[in-house]
Amino acid sequence: MDTMMDEGIVLALQPFRDSDWIIRWICHETGRMDTLARGARKTGSSFHGRLGLYNRCRISFLRSSRSELHTLKECSLIEHPSHLEKSILGLQAMAAAAGMIESLTEKNTPVPEIFESLRRLLTALKNPSPVSIEGFYTRFEVELLEQGGMAPASLPSPLISRISAPEQPSDTDNFTERLGRFTSSLMARQQLTIPESRSRFLRHLSAATKSQPQHHQKNEENEPDRSGETSSRDIGETGGNQ
What we know:
Elements: E1 2-16, E2 20-27, E3 31-37, E4 56-63, E5 69-79, H1 88-104, H2 112-124, H3 130-147, H4 157-164, H5 175-189, H6 196-210
Helix pairs in contact: 1-3, 1-6, 2-3, 3-4, 5-6
């Protein structure tokens, strides 16, 4: 076994045997992987307080040549996302993001761009506003699709607007539902399953954004002619004509 060093974000933890954890990571160099932390659930373990959900850590592990389960040796905490403790919607956004990463990546395959996208989302979720969460999650999901080679060459204009101004309310009616259909159609063509965590998050996000007061209105008189651009309703269908 070779000892490896990496930086990772905890995607999930699973109890194993009497006192161990199996930790699922997305790492900068290694990609998505699982490690076994022996004795991590024991009182006084060196891992205590470091292996929380969505914690960002610096780790060393023994890489197995015989299985996909590696052995965690050391872990130092870089950042604990305490802001998620007060944001159910933020937690759901991270669960959705983790589910999408599981669906779109292979284990032990380097995906540094996806790691960085998730790290940026984790930081952006410090703003608990549903509008902001919608915008930054949309940016993450589009980046994930692009990095997986699934996004169309020309994105629908509502997506472009939302990504460029993630903290501003969308001008598109039912934007969250349309984002859901857009990604679902792309993944269906690749015979990939949408994770339930994402579907659940989008339902709650849609309800939360609809309850938000509108901070601005479009000025129809001064609205430029965009008849040649992609219609806002096409966000749910665009992607099949690549």
